[in-house]
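Exercise 7. Predict the structure of LARGE xylosyl- and glucuronyltransferase 2 from Sparus aurata.
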Amino acid sequence: PQRRWKLQLRFHLLSPVSSHGRSLLLAPCLADTPAARVLERAVLESRVREVEEENRQIRLQLSQSQGTAAQPPDGNYGNQQWGASADTGPEDGDNTAEEKNNHTECPRSPTVQKCELIHVACVCAGHNASRDVVTLVKSVLFHRRNPLHFHFITDTVANRILSSLFQSWMVPSVQVSFYDADELKSEVSWIPNKHYSGIYGLMKLTLTKALPSDLSKVIVLDTDITFATDIAELWGIFRKFTDKQVIGLVENQSDWYLGNLWKNHKPWPALGRGFNTGVILLYLERLRRIGWEQMWRLTAERELMSMLSTSLADQDIFNAFIKQNPVLVHQLPCFWNVQLSDHTRSEQCYTEVSDLKVIHWNSPKKLRVKNKHVEFFRNLYLTFLEYDGNLLRRELFGCPSQASPETVQLQAALEELDEDDQCYDFRRERLTVHRVHLYFLQYEYTPTEDDTDVTLVAQLSMDRLQMLEAICKHWEGPISLALYMSDAEAQQFLRYAQASEVLKNRKNVGYHIVYKEGQFYPVNLVRNVALKNANTPYVFLTDVDFLPMYGLYDYLSRKSVVQLDMAHTKKALVVPAFETLRYRLSFPKSKAELLSMLDMGTLYTFRYHVWPKGHAPTNYAKWRTATTPYKVEWEPDFEPYVVVRRDCPEYDQRFVGFGWNKVSHVMELDAQEYDLMVLPNAFMIHMPHAPSFDISKFRSSSSYRNCLNTLKDEFHQDLSRKYGSAALKYLTAQRNI
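Solution. The predicted structure, encoded as tokens:
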């Protein structure tokens, strides 16, 4: 039977004949006179409509013959008996290759204009959802050919993360607006909800109120959605709504609303299988006109009298509303929401890869869901998960967009650069805008009452990842880490952190991803990201390959900060640095034990054999016997690790890669008249590792070293302009070296 239906279908596509006995498909839109062209077009359109209807009936019969055993008692798959269009015509892309090849070549008006702005809304709360929404956005941006306006209903956490991300992403022809979910909670907090999404799973009900009153329509998406096609195709379906239709939805592909999943299973009322709300077309203008807010509230109040709570959050209320008002729903083809939860009919939504439009990971199991094609879907998802987001910063040809002030300023600065300058690459790197994803993992921090808390601040790349567990064991206080990684490396880090017993149990560590771009390691930019996102009054500025002594956090936050009156004076507390050449070290538990290891040659003062100037001013000889903090003077190339107030100067971002990145920072602390105070009972130890790529470039490239000297001179000049005569000593000291 299947072969016979396909032959019939093909016959219908090949055989439409005009009233003149001539094949219309063999005479594409050409005629001798304008009148003849108009007549032939009218005849053609009439015949095409007839053929489409016949083919629709054939497909319906074919689907019934293929899936009779799996159909409900009435023999129909889907909600078509309720009069809602399923958009199964050829223009929707659900035809076979044979059918497409046999369509007329006559041009058809596009359903979406070339530069038409498409609006997309999403509810996003928390750290995990913020990560998910980035993958969704990547998949949309990858396929899109239209300007986009994203509307995010967010909690405070997601707002901070996503606003920073989009600001640094700088994607052309993309607008982003945020709406405070806290202001909407009162609208839905009265509804008991058992779904794991909590109160945020009900927020889509409030969109007519939350979104701007002049916004007429919007595509609403869950965060666990992946697009496999241009979102403009979905937007174009709005034009197929009848005058009464206000909501576009795909049928639910599980048996949930049929009520037969288990004994005494009582779902909310729904039409047949019901509808899934992971992908919604909302005609906001019409919804407001019919009084949507009052209608859904009345529906919810009525059903809650017997149901007591929702099981699937907003989806239950949408379905109960639609059952009472079926004429208001426009049914979308199921490939616009292929639902990958266990025991669904999602496999009936596609026969080829090209059929897929939207994949919905709506099972709590997410990527571990059961589906015979799950490997294909998982690979598609992982493609966007690890896709380089920098590649999505592309202009839309033919759709001019108004550049943001930041973009205009950046472009002007780039135009001022001299490409013949031998240090052009260094200067260009300083202007590079890196994408930043703050709080990549769950983060929780409660400020202390005494305002003396200290955050350990550091930066790292993939090759230092192994240091994280050891640092967390040595420092129990809050940590702010900026990680310089590619999109793919960020996912490797995520898997590493989630598998680590040490890391997954630490919630007071803020991990901030700075995405790779350019040829240099922007070390000071990455440091600044970690510094600016510390949430305590004081910060310990260190490097990730150092282990602080056990108890250093308490020593600093409970004693040194108070003792040295850090709140009212400008001080930088120096933590003396040591190093070992051994990968396995019995870490000293006290100053006395460290001094013993120093005398035995197990430990050394840091870099004494290759760069003594970097830490010699710490005065290690005095430190051996010191019992109280002592002041030291700034000297050229001094680069200690210090504890300062969080409002200290940022690192100078002109210094990239290896060389002078910390030296310049300590110099500016001194220029701002910070006292450098060495702590007598604190220490840190550098653990051995392979040389970084940047130090190798510094050692092997004379042009690299020459440019570094040029940047040093320019930094000195800037210090002089900023701090006047007080900064002359740095220039004099540099010339005397």
